[in-house]
């Protein structure tokens, strides 16, 4: 190892490919996300954005290339020059360090906001009930929902539910957060409150990959923007630069539709 801890990227994809049968969905994707960096991933529907996030989280297995999180191969162990598939338990442990927030909030409907946030750390016996409860309350306060801790999801707005989902992901103390179109299912007036929470998280130093069509957020918060189309990275760079001065025709065509 020549890399030091601080220079190891949080995410490193090297020529990552993924196929479903004969459909090659990711075609040699290479990118890096440094610690504390926010990367926005944009592109048309079907371009492979969700698949890429699912590979990082090892919900999917890649077919070629190398993918590592925090210097460790995703789903594999390396001993010398040999590479072994991880035991499912070990893979699950690796996945716990990565928080994921989806378009749909997927909260447990029969549990309160507080219970939703406490659930995973409770199952994993991460501390006493009192300690986990006070930590969960802190997280709800962080997403602006301390006063709603005993509400059930059905009695929260979509924006509030999504903020609970973010608090729930944070409860596992992730080193990386993946967001897959977290505001796409929300009424327009509720988008801002979720983006504000994500912005606060970015400012606190969290490493994040955000699939979004919110170009204002990308410009303001992201360190890097990657435009994907047809399973390839078409263009990437400084968000303001890419958004205001796209170099490739495909990027221009896409941006003319979403901006
Ligand atoms: P995006 O998130 O950019 O809209 P996806 O990653 O969801 O794109 O999908 C990319 C392509 O992969 C699409 O053609 C989709 O039909 C295909 N795909 C996604 N998931 C699966 C799956 N589980 N099985 C087969 N094909 C899939
Ligand atoms: Mg998607």
UniProtKB/TrEMBL annotation:
Catalysed reactions, semicolon-separated: a polar amino acid(out) + ATP + H2O = a polar amino acid(in) + ADP + phosphate + H(+)
Pfam families documented for this protein: ABC_tran
Domain ABC transporter residues, every copy: 11-255
GO molecular function terms listed in the Swiss-Prot or TrEMBL record: ATP binding; ATP hydrolysis activity; ATPase-coupled polar amino acid-transporter activity
Keyword annotations: ATP-binding, Nucleotide-binding, Transport
Keyword Nucleotide-binding: yes
EC number: 7.4.2.1
SMART domains with a match to the protein in the record: AAA
Domain of life, per lineage: Bacteria
Family to which the UniProt record says this protein belongs: Belongs to the ABC transporter superfamily.
Name used for this protein in its record: ABC-type polar-amino-acid transporter
Source species: Leucobacter komagatae
Organismal lineage: Bacteria, Bacillati, Actinomycetota, Actinomycetes, Micrococcales
